[in-house]
Amino acid sequence: MSEGLVNRSCKPCEGGVEPLSREQSEQLLAALHDDWSISDDGLSIERTFEFPAYSRTLGFANAAAWIAISEGHHPVLTVEYGRCIVSYTTHAIDGLSDNDFICAAKTDRLVESPAA
């Protein structure tokens, strides 16, 4: 994972800027965990996180929500027993922005294994 994305902060987006191109999105996607994917229409990114128990899923969802609150950029979280689907898009520009990839990288960090 790219430390560059994790160390960045989201910038407010009120619209008026172009969403990332497919090529730009794919370059940023390469810095994330391999389980992230870009939607067919190129407007969002998504990853499914799996857990052995509902309590762990809820703990993860709460931690992802804290990232969203801290960064001012909010994903769609779909919480089910044993998994949480996280989807990012930037609604103000109807597409992807750097903010989506920054938050995805920070979300990845929630489940990274500690270095051996």
Count of structural domains? 1
Report the CATH C-level class. Answer: Alpha Beta
Mean pLDDT: 91
- The spatial strand order of the largest sheet comes to 1-2-4-3
Described by strand count, sense and barrel closure, the largest sheet is: 4 strands, antiparallel
Order of helices and strands: HHEEHEEH
| Tertiary shape | globular
Helix content: 25-40%
Give the end-to-end Cα distance, rounded to a whole number of Å: 16 Å
Secondary-structure arrangement, i.e. CATH architecture: 2-Layer Sandwich
CATH topology descriptor: Gyrase A, domain 2
What's the CATH H-level homologous superfamily? Transcriptional coactivator/pterin dehydratase
Taking pLDDT < 50 over at least 5 consecutive residues as the criterion, the unreliable ranges are none
How many helices?
Answer: 4
Radius of gyration: 14 Å
- Structural class designation: alpha+beta
* DSSP strand tally: 4
Percent strand equals 15-25%
Q: Which properties best describe this structure?
A:
4 helices, 36% helix, alpha+beta, four-stranded antiparallel β-sheet, Gyrase A, domain 2, 116 residues
Structure description:
With 116 residues, the chain is α+β, with helices and mostly antiparallel strands. The chain has a single domain (3-8, 19-109), classed as Gyrase A, domain 2 (2-Layer Sandwich), CATH 3.30.1360. It is built from 4 helices and 4 strands. The protein has a 4-stranded antiparallel sheet, covered by helices on one side. A hairpin with a 2-residue loop joins strand 3 (76-80) and strand 4 (83-88). The protein is globular. It starts with a helix and ends in a 7-residue tail after the last helix.
